[in-house]
Write a structure and sequence with these properties.
This protein has one domain. The protein has 432 residues and is α+β, with helices and mostly antiparallel strands. Helix 3 links the parallel strand 2 and strand 3. The two termini are 27 Å apart. It is 44% helix and 13% strand. It contains 15 helices and 8 strands.
């Protein structure tokens, strides 16, 4: 869709919001299920068919067809099981269930989508020890996602009518937690003389958690980051190829900006994914080496004391046009390695140590938090975001795979949801 010429009305907040709502109502689909999330191995065939039949009813009630064009997806899993599966095994199961019908009586090529290769963006949140089980799944066209990013960036940068102050939506924390941690470590002898070694270690843990939370809050994929990452596609969608700058140097600016996000110092450069079956073992070894190097060079993360999300930016390698790797399969290779090296606590309850607490009420409260953490999954990422840069037929540039990780608290909502929230809040504040 090319929208280089627009009426004055469409440039007003009401016009921009109207187009946003049109995209939301026509393109977005949302489904909820009150069931316990399971892996493919733990779910019997008749359970899978029952799930798909329930899904089909919801699809028909919503009068939705299967997506055929590229999409982005948000998956939220609320788990109650004492022995839950790992996040990457759950996602694989439900991505397959959302795609191909198992029951031959269902006369559809695809349920929510016809092919999970069409998923260009995937945000997953995995919540342990909930009161009730649930699965919440949201899907929208990739093109709509790019247009929402474009509008969100205009709002943040003040390019849209009714300027928006970025400080209104950006959390400002002037407290120097890293500096406080350094001072606390240097004054260890002074503290231990007053409070003792045990109390000092407890306070040290608190300082390290605060420092990790603040530091990793800046590692998350924000709206601006993804806007800059997808800038080449947004410019083409916004102006059309024929309306891009004719000067070669100017036309390359969006690509250079996109690559600056990919090659950011806070990102871990991983080897690109294997294109042949016999390269999988070597790929995993190289991923392990890259992640371990980063781990060893940054002692602030040894060990991790807070739950984290993994963030991946990906462009398929330069190879035959028939090659493609599903996003969930990429994470299935990376997540176990990341978990083994960084050992992130799956919840804050994973780091609770109550053995030496003498006060009964506090002991019982913390003991419950500790016991609530499933022993089978005490260390694991609690969510991830992966976004793909599509490769077109005339694209001869190299592919890439980069990673970062962020605090799960500051990155609890997906970029899709953040853009929705920003646009809604912006429109409410506009004087219509």
């Amino acid at each position: 869709m090319i929208y280089s010429e627009k009426s004055e009305f469409l440039q007003t907040p009401r016009g921009q919001y109207g187009r946003y709502m049109s995209r939301l109502l026509k393109g977005r689909s949302y489904y909820t299920f009150d069931v316990e999330p399971k892996s493919k191995k733990s779910m019997k065939r008749h359970e899978k068919i029952t799930f798909q039949q329930d899904l089909l009813k919801k699809i028909r009630n919503a009068k939705r067809r299967a997506y055929r064009a590229p999409i982005v997806a948000e998956l939220n899993f609320d788990v109650t099981s004492n022995t839950p599966p790992f996040i990457h095994t759950v996602v694989k199961n439900y991505q397959d269930l959302f795609e191909k019908p198992l029951d031959k009586s269902i006369k559809r090529k695809g349920l929510i989508y016809q092919n999970d290769k069409s998923i260009y963006g995937l945000s997953v949140r995995y919540n342990l020890k909930n009161d009730k089980p649930a699965i919440r799944a949201s899907f929208r066209p990739f093109r709509d996602f790019l247009q929402n990013l474009d509008l969100a960036n205009d709002i943040l940068s003040g390019d849209s009518e009714n300027r928006w102050n970025e400080q209104q939506i950006k959390h400002q924390n002037s407290h120097d937690t890293l500096g406080d941690l350094g001072k606390f470590i240097k004054k260890k002898n002074e503290f231990t003389e007053v409070v003792g070694e045990e109390a000092y270690q407890s306070l040290l843990l608190s300082h390290r958690m605060a420092a990790q939370e603040d530091l990793l809050s800046g590692f998350s994929l924000g709206l601006r980051d993804l806007y800059l990452f997808y800038m080449p596609l947004i410019m083409i969608q916004k102006f059309g190829k024929n309306h891009l700058p004719s000067n070669r140097n100017d036309s390359l600016i969006p690509d250079h900006i996109s690559k600056s996000i990919v090659n950011s110092p806070i990102r871990i450069q991983l080897p690109n994914i294997p294109t042949k079956k016999n390269e999988k073992t070597l790929f995993k070894k190289r991923v392990q080496s890259s992640l371990n190097d980063f781990y060893q060079k940054h002692p602030i993360f040894r060990p991790l004391h807070i739950p984290v999300h993994l963030n991946i930016l990906y462009k398929p390698p330069k190879t035959s046009k028939h090659f493609f790797k599903d996003l969930d399969n990429i994470l299935r290779m990376i997540v176990p390695i990341f978990n083994d090296i960084f050992e992130p606590p799956s919840t804050y309850g994973s780091i609770v140590k109550v053995d030496r607490i003498k006060y009964p009420r506090l002991y019982n409260s913390l003991k419950k938090s500790e016991d609530d953490v499933p022993k089978s999954i005490r260390t694991s990422i609690s969510g991830y975001d992966i976004f793909q840069m599509p490769r077109y037929h005339d694209d001869k540039s190299e592919g890439y795979l980069t990673a970062s990780f962020s605090c799960s608290i500051s990155n609890n909502r997906s970029v899709m949801s953040k853009s929705d929230d920003l646009i809604e809040e912006w429109y409410e504040r506009c004087e219509i």
